[in-house]
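pipeline: protein-struct stage 2 | run 1193 | S-adenosylmethionine-dependent nucleotide dehydratase RSAD2
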Amino acid sequence: MPFSSAIASPKLLLQLFISTIYCIFESAFSKLRYWTTGACKGTKSFVSAAGHKLNENNEETATIPTSVNYHFTRKCNYKCGFCFHTAKTSFVLPLEEAKRGLKLLKESGMEKINFSGGEPFLHERGEFLGKLVQYCKQDLQLPSVSIVSNGSMIKEKWFQKYGVYLDILAVSCDSFDEATNQLIGRTQGRKSHLDNLYKICNWCQEYKVAFKINSVINTFNTDEDMTEHINQLNPVRWKVFQCLVIDGENAGESALREAERFVISDQQFQEFLDRHSSVSCLVPESNEKMRNSYLILDEYMRFLDCREGRKDPSKSILDVGVEQAICFSGFDEKMFLKRGGKYVWSKADMKLEW
């Protein structure tokens, strides 16, 4: 060995030793930092420096994206004052990229996909949505494919073309009084939101799609009794949400909405639930249950973490994969199960009378 190399070797060994110690401390710090009270829920676990979920025995586990809500567009033709996923961008992934992400989710264990917005029927007049619905049911063979819509853009010809691939269609309706819907912003021009609701309910029956209703309870409808109308429409589920404030979406300086005037107390929400306790299909979701118990993908296919009262995005699953991205979703799997997030969601298993 040359003399110069012999002199240099101790220095190289020292640098290697320091580098190794640094990596050990960096790994330990990363594990401490991402210890879950938050990120990857299920068992008591933490996220390693590599982004993998580990349990107490230092064994890798993974959060399974059983049910995913994909908000592929933020654009909407309504202006609901409490909306917490507003039109901050107009971006929509190309169809093939969206399909690639959906396939990644299926390979990671997804059983149910829910398409939402914005208004999902607005982009390409529902054709983009229809192609995604068909792909998920026909190609990916998902047990459940569902949509949440305001109902204003849905045409019967969409059901004729794509209804066979859809398990559940949820239409948002916050009041059975047209004037109240006007105050909330769930309207467009002189079109009747309620006429659309009943029309779509009939189409769902005709084309064998399970019909669902979503309602956000707020200051304008908290005293309303919707029992008669809900019983008449007879949805498979009536999802009743407490108005939720998300910084940067419907509250704060950068927000496109000001939802504070729509917010109700926990007591008011409970009084609404008590008034409708006879409705068998009612599924209540308070802010506590709702905030962290949904896996939400935005238009870039990034999981959104709502634990801090805002929507902090992960990296896109298209760039880093599902397993790594989901560790930064803030998903509370225990609350997901507690609120009844897993239910009979395939229309083939619902035993409905069409």
